[in-house]
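QA checklist item 7 of 12: single-chain prediction sanity check.
[x] sequence parsed
[x] length recorded as 336
[x] structure emitted
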Amino acid sequence: MHNTGDSLLYVLSAKGEMSWADFKKCFDYLVGMQREPNEAESEYYRKHRRRGTLLGMEALGHCDAQFEASPSKISVAPAGFVRLPQSGLPQIVLAGNRSPSAIEILDTYCKKVSRQIRILVSEQPVARSLIPNRVLITAESVDQISEISRLIGVAFDECPAAWSISTFCASLDQYLASRNWSSGTEPNLKRRDFDLGSLGFLDYRRDKEQWRLSGYTDRIRSTQLYFLWKDGSYAHVDLDWGRYAIAQEAGVSLLIYDERRFIVAVPAGAPLPKLFTRSLALCSGYTGHFVPGTLLSVPSPETRGFHLFKDIPPQIAEMVAVKLGQTLLPYSIDID
């Protein structure tokens, strides 16, 4: 059982790495095979789907993308078993390099170890994406999983990756301390400033504020730069970190946690830095499920919607929030 997203991972696995341009070509070809006859799709929507697919594949540990250098590069991750931080029988998901015969091979070796081992293949919760299926293995003991990993030749760490990532990932304060801060004049480029009230970038300038996050557009190179300004000094920052720096300085909490259903809601306008997104996704093996803001009435400036991550233990939710200078907002999220 496989879907079009699996096919995208098969191609990336066969090549090892590809440029963003080649990734787009492969994505568009597979989407064309998936699309119904006479079904139209705008380039804007296609661009949104491409980006969402790549982010989802990164979050699940299938690949890593580098856009800082030229040319851009997307590399497949080595195949591995990722343990989920859940109670009960040990559960793992298959991440990284995958071939069309991977599930068949996995099933063969699982049966050699124990007939009680179960494999469940399920689709991701992202509609019309090309994110590979979730492959979940449930065994009776960690020793059984270790034996399967030895037989197949894939990596396995008994410690859940979600714990390791959230524990060892740098905090927001550490990230800001690592930036090179300078003083100087404003770049002569089109500028927009981040607005906490809407979680978006507006033309309204915030020159009088001690802290601001500004985005600059270089139309000749078709690139975006983001500078965090504080007290007249500035530093180049990753956009995802920059938004939470502004939120921390303003004392605004953006992350919502349902401690009854173990769901973290992340505003669409303030995505988590990549490693924290990976930590949440690898609690369940599922990417975030987008829910429009009209369906989720929560105390937040976000109106477009939220990405819901399921099966998040309280300790991991709290650790991610603290490292981003956030306080979790307790709220009941009654959405299936």
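[x] summary fact logged: The chain has four domains: 4-76, 80-160, 167-171+253-330, 173-250.
[ ] second reviewer sign-off
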